[in-house]
């Protein structure tokens, strides 16, 4: 009888809701159906870089209760590209071979990498260099991975942003204010567009559609004429300033992250329209909390499909969700093009048809 396989699983990039559902389903399928061993690798590729590699055996008993938990039981990282790893002495080193060696040290036959565009690009480069058997699962609240309608984490983030708008309606109406909600998304406006429509925003600003301050102020005026004394604006973090720049916040260590466009717009809007403005930056709330049922369903389907790809010997593939089917595409194809909002998307058309201002 052939020796049972031993596979590894890791989560990489920003955490999000639903990662544990993928891990759980993969273990159910690998151990329950195929009798394989599963090693959970800690802190993404960092776990494979450590000696001994930082990993823990995962069993059905261990993963059974994690379905409802947010985040990832394995930990993750979105820092420290292994090909240009920042060392304590300030130098930058290529540590890719250490990760490849870690894979072999654990005796892995294959690896499931759950990550976004950045992580999948890094993992694929490692797999090509070290001839590793890699299967990818798309995750990111930003939904910017190509070839799949949905990535793990997006649905929960949209629900949270929608609920935030639901709450802002009342306080906005009570004080006759323009309320601005800044949401995440990196260079894509998927969260803002989806939550904006679902949460009844009057103005939706996304990086894919350039806006003018005049058209936002006109919308506020139109609403007032229609007897609506408040306005809800949702803005994606990568929307640019009038000068065409993205707003960044930089900490004392000099690390920069997207953020600040909400406050920028609030000042400009009150200056131009006289309206009173307030800003809510939703931040990492969008990544936390209990995974939605959609997340658990797709996560479970992805976990099973990823293990089945390994069983079929189909590597360098990423599982996808399209038209209610789980399929797979070459990872290279999925990450070849950044997936922003298509300006001909049905939701863009829906927003326009309802008179929602998209800023143009
Ligand atoms: N496995 C990893 N190890 C170290 N750094 C990583 C890893 N995956 C991604 N990163 C880094 O995290 C940052 C965020 O990448 P990004 O593409 O936004 O993440 P995601 O994979 O969630 O889409 C990038 O600078 C990338 O170099
Ligand atoms: O956790 P950090 O480092 O502040 O990262 C924030 C970024 O991560 C995200 O929440 C998720 O992005 P990824 O899925 O690409 O990791 C972005 O929307 C946001 O810009
Ligand atoms: Mg990403």
What does this protein look like?
- Its EC number is 2.7.1.11.
- Pfam families: PFK.
- This is ATP-dependent 6-phosphofructokinase.
- It catalyses: beta-D-fructose 6-phosphate + ATP = beta-D-fructose 1,6-bisphosphate + ADP + H(+).
- Its main location: cytoplasm.
- This protein is of the alpha/beta class.
- The chain is built from 12 helices and 15 strands.
- The strands form 4 sheets. A 7-stranded mixed beta sheet has the order 3-2-1-6-7-14-15, with helices on both faces.
- Strand 14 (about 315-320) and strand 15 (about 325-330) form a beta hairpin.
- Helix 4 crosses helix 5 (about 115-130).
- The mean pLDDT is about 95.
In short:
This protein is an alpha/beta fold and 360 residues long. It has helices spanning 19-33, 45-49, 60-63, 96-105, 117-130, 154-175, 190-198, 213-225, 261-273, 293-311, 331-336, 346-353; strands spanning 6-11, 37-41, 55-58, 85-86, 92-93, 110-115, 134-138, 178-183, 203-205, 231-236, 248-250, 256-258, 277-281, 317-322, 325-330.
